[in-house]
Amino acid sequence: FCIETLQDALMRYGAPDIFNTDQGSQFTTPRFTGILEERQIRISMDGRGRWLDNVFIERLWRSLKYECVYLHAFETGSEPRAGLGRWIAHYNERRPHTALAGRTPDEAYHDVPTPSGPGLTPDQMANSNAVRRAA
């Protein structure tokens, strides 16, 4: 799964200069690191047990668990893959983020201007989210 996701991200977004992960076994295998090395991507790994080194991704995992995983009783192996895929697409493409001045991660990545300017109110955020859901 991790290798498939890495390859998909590289095809979709291109190779970054640096790739940061924790020291989980899925990220330290020769197969995973080899893909990065083949593309001359610098590998960065957080210190063992140092969740604070990667606080932003830890927050993403928290959101994913509380907004998707814990709310669904997935019954087959394919259901979580589909459900997580839908949640991640929503999170990246349609869900505005306060930390990104109301933009989605995709909009921030592609440097799309803020929908209503910086400092969105909760009402503006909700309206922006409703417009994205309708799209």
Can you give a write-up of this model?
There is one protein chain. This protein is mainly α. The chain folds into two domains: 1-49, no CATH class; 51-112, no CATH class. It is 53% helix and 6% strand. Strands 1-2 form a two-stranded parallel sheet. It starts with a helix and ends with a helix. The mean pLDDT is 83. This is IS3 family transposase. Residues 124-135 have a biased composition (Polar residues).
Separation of the first and last Cα atoms: 29 Å
Write down the domain tally.
Answer: 2
Provide the gyration radius in Å: 17 Å
How large a portion of the residues is in β-strands, by DSSP E? 5-15%
Largest sheet: 2 strands, parallel
GO molecular function: nucleic acid binding
Protein name: IS3 family transposase
Organism: Komagataeibacter xylinus
Biased composition (Polar residues): 124-135
Short summary:
With 135 residues, the chain is mostly helical. The protein contains seven helices and two strands, in the order H-E-H-H-E-H-H-H-H.
Keywords:
single chain, 135 residues, mainly alpha, 2 domains, 7 helices, 2 strands, 53% helix, 6% strand, globular
Secondary structure layout:
Blueprint: H1 2-13, E1 18-21, H2 25-28, H3 30-38, E2 42-45, H4 55-67, H5 78-93, H6 105-109, H7 122-134
Parallel strand pairs: 1-2
